[in-house]
Design the sequence.
């Protein structure tokens, strides 16, 4: 899987040396955001504190947790690697995305067996209603046991959309559209 992620990184001409230090979950999240935002200035015009991230996944940071456990499992050859340990928190993936794209708003990662659009919709809607964020990167990033899946979209509060968009470039942020986009992969 790591070679696939490196290949995607090179294919899109991304230059970010810190990428090579990341665990696979963070690499997948980072690449997904890079591809979504590449060639666009969609985040421009929003204050950094007004850009949130709300994601879900199924396995948290299990893949990295296993690596860390292997490094400390043998009491005679005990060596905890700080570069592995730091990624034993799945929200580090969000941190990597936030640092790269200067997103300083509210953020959360929810763990569930499968994509939970109702939960994501509820959380993002509350952030919008309470004016905590103006736009939010949301979706699903799953990476474990040599399989990975990524679905991201940027949703914006209707009263904050400043750009005229063409049909097909946007959808109304409601539960049925979020479910349809994820489960039918229309975007």
Sequence:
């Amino acid at each position: 899987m790591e070679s696939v992620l490196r290949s995607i990184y090179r294919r899109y001409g991304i230059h970010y040396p810190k990428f090579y230090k990341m665990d696979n979950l963070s690499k997948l999240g980072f690449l997904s955001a890079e591809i979504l935002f590449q060639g666009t200035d969609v985040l421009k015009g929003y204050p950094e504190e007004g850009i949130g991230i709300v994601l879900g996944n199924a396995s948290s940071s299990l893949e990295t947790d296993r690596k860390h456990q292997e490094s400390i499992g043998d009491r005679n050859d005990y060596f905890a690697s700080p570069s592995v340990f730091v990624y034993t928190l799945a929200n580090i993936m969000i941190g990597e995305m936030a640092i790269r794209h200067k997103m300083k708003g509210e953020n959360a990662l929810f763990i569930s067996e499968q994509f939970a659009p109702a939960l994501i919709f509820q959380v993002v809607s509350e952030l919008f209603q309470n004016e905590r964020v103006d736009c939010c990167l949301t979706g699903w990033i799953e990476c474990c046991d040599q399989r990975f899946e990524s679905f991201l979209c940027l949703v914006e509060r209707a009263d904050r959309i400043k750009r005229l968009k063409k049909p097909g470039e946007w959808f109304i942020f409601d539960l049925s559209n979020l479910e349809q986009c994820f489960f039918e992969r229309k975007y």
